[in-house]
Amino acid sequence: MKTLVLNLGSTSTKAGVFEDGKPLAVRTIRHDPHTFSAYATLMDQKDERKRSAEEWFLGEGYSFRDLDVIAARGGMVRPVPGGIYLVDDAAAGDAASGRYGDHASNLGLVIAREWSAEHGVPAIFADPPTTDEMTDVARVTGVRGAPRRSVFHALNCKRAVRGWCGASGADPLTGRFVVAHMGGGITVAAVDGLRVADVTNGIDGEGPFTPERSGALSVKAVLGLLEASGGDGASLYKRLYTRGGLMSWFGTTDVGALEKRAQDEPEVRLVLDAMVYNVAKHIGAMAAALDGRVDRVLLTGGIAHNAPMMERLIAKVSFIAGCSVLPGEDELGALADAARRYALGLEEAKSVAG
């Protein structure tokens, strides 16, 4: 059972061919950011992205006739429960419109829809960033009409749970986990039987600060920054979202390089420790969301490769439960596994339209 898997980032296209969930060929295609900056909209990149992925796929000696499934990383579609979804007109329409948010992964859904129509191969996605399984009480804020949203690293979060359970013999449908995904963005989730009952929404500015995002700030601080920016809310949001966190402090998002600097620079050590401290606080909060009954704390994402930082984080949260470090984010593998479950009839693919 062969699957073509597609995962689009801001300046990269990750593609892979998998058979029965195992990789046969994988490639990360790097794109010139200056070329993309000339496009007026995200969707204007589609033809170039599609062409480059097709050239790699065909150049590896494969044909669309070889495929059983196409799997794309889910984009910013309407809020849906976790699971496997068809890349149908409704999903591709959500992605193309950008009404739920712009992200490069939106392009992946549109491209997968076109390939599916052109070659007669079913296309699916799984656990998109807009996966929404939050409890009612977790949505309520102190302002009527301003509920919390669920936007997070759902694909890797659920992949981490399934992976740990598969290795340990636990049942993901009955386990209770706190999962911290730590990369350029950081989200911390309370997972109850594969349902994400609560999560910090890094897109909206919740949670700990990160290598590039400011994280949660006080209302007074945000209003002061807004006034200092001349009232330009869109510009301030972009600044807090892409140039906050470690970038704001040190002009870099390279955690490994900053760890080396921290040996001689007290300010760098303080800020890195503060980031760990904030992640730990939100892990504690999500443990409370699970009433303190946590089977495992799972630490994943790119930052999880940093062993000294993980040691400091585990020292602060291991009182909650045992901790496991699962570095990186195997999104291609997660999508290939979803495609396998779909092709074998182990999990039904739904439509975002219901």
Question: Which key phrases capture this entry?
Answer:
alpha/beta, six-stranded mixed sheet, 13 helices, 11 strands, globular
How would you explain this protein's 3D organization?
The model has no long low-confidence stretch (mean pLDDT 95). With 354 residues, the protein is of the alpha/beta class. The protein contains 13 helices and 11 strands. The chain is globular, with a radius of gyration of 20 Å. A hairpin with a 3-residue loop joins strand 1 and strand 2. Helices cover 41% and strands 18% of the residues. The chain has helices at 33-37, 46-59, 89-97, 104-119, 136-139, 154-168, 219-228, 233-242, 245-250, 255-262, 266-289, 307-317, 331-343; strands spanning 2-8, 12-19, 22-30, 69-72, 84-86, 123-126, 176-182, 186-192, 195-199, 296-301, 323-327.
The proportion of strand residues reads 15-25%
Work out the radius of gyration: 20 Å
Number of helices: 13
How would a crystallographer describe the biggest sheet? 6 strands, mixed
End-to-end distance = 28 Å
Order of helices and strands: EEEHHEEHHEHHEEEHHHHHEHEH
Given as residue ranges, the uncertain stretches (5+ residues, pLDDT < 50) are none
What strand order characterises the main sheet?
Answer: 3-2-1-4-6-5
Mean pLDDT: 95
Form type:
globular
Q: State the share of residues found in helices, binned by percent.
A: 40-55%
Given the helix and strand composition, which structural class is it? alpha/beta
Total DSSP E strands: 11
Write a brief structural summary.
The chain has 354 residues and is α/β, with parallel strands linked by helices.
